[in-house]
Each structure stands twice: as C-alpha cells, then as structure tokens.
Amino acid sequence: MSETQNSTSQKAMDEDNKAASQTMPNTQDKNYEDELTQVALALVEDVINYAVKIVEEERNPLKNIKWMTHGEFTVEKGLKQIDEYFSKCVSKKCWAHGVEFVERKDLIHSFLYIYYVHWSISTADLPVARISAGTYFTMKVSKTKPPDAPIVVSYVGDHQALVHRPGMVRFRENWQKNLTDAKYSFMESFPFLFNRV
After folding, report:
1. Structure pTM?
2. What residues does each domain of the chain span?
3. What is the rounded CA–CA span in Å between residue 143 and residue 7?
4. What is the pLDDT of residues 140-169, one digit of tens each?
C-alpha cells in the first residue's frame, strides 16, 4: 500500500510540476523574445530612416551646376560659379554671402585656387551681422589634364576637416546656422571680451 501511495504521490507531483512549468514563463524563451524584439525594432528603425532619406532626396535632389573645364578656368569665372552654385543650393533668402579669392597654390601637377565664402544673416534689429560663418572652396586645375576635362571642386566649412564635393553631398544651410549659433553662444558667454568698441 505504501508503494501505491508513493507512486500516486509521485504522479501527483509530476502533474503539479508539469502544470507549473506550463504556467510559469521560461526565462530563456523570454530573453530570446526580448532580443528578437530589439533586433526587429532596430531593423524597422533602419528601414524607416532609409525611407525618409529616399523621400528627402526625391523632394530635394542633389543640386549642382555644370562646373567649367580646365580650358575655361579663370579666377573670375570661379567666383561666378561659386555664386551660381549657392544661388541654386541655398533656399532661404535670409542668408547673405560674399565670395572672395584667397590664394593660388602651385603644386607639382596642379594649381589650387582657394576661395572663401562669408555667410551671415542680417535682421531688422541688426542689419550688419556681428557673426559670420564661412566655407572654403578649392578648385583644382590640373597641369596635365586636357582643356576639356572638368575641374575638381571641393569645399570645407570653417573649423571642419571633412571635405565635401558638390553634386556628391548636399550643401546644408543648417551647417552655417549651427556654426553662427555656436559663435553667438560663445560671444554671450564672454561679453567682456566682445562688447568692446
């Protein structure tokens, strides 16, 4: 009889354990589901970001101009082409810019013509802007390429190291705004340095 009771109680315990294992979640399965959810969310976020990028490029395609060739190049034409590029790329009319030729560097196989573009926003309160941002343009004219080959154009922002190429990277006005805002914040932090006349 005790043997029958033991086997009956063993069966009851097995059934209790089976029922408990069905009602209690398995921690390994839960961790796996959490990891799977995280991967799925990351994937969905990447897809959404990519879709937003495609829509933005459809609405605002890369804007560029037809840059002059080696045979057409002059310093004055370089100034005009930079103006033309920005008139096509900059949508907000509040930005004022001026282009000036800085220098010509003679390298072994080419000449580098460097231009500086000043950016500022004038307002009714302050018609002459106290703060400006800048962009350095470099036009590379090769000594060895044929006259009908296009020149190589690149630009970098003030205090930046990343080189951009027109037609490959969209010029963003907020780069200039961020720089002018940072300069303005710096000037406000040290008014005793900048309020002198």
Report:
1. 0.61
2. 2-58, 75-194
3. 98
4. 999 999 999 999 999 888 777 788 888 787
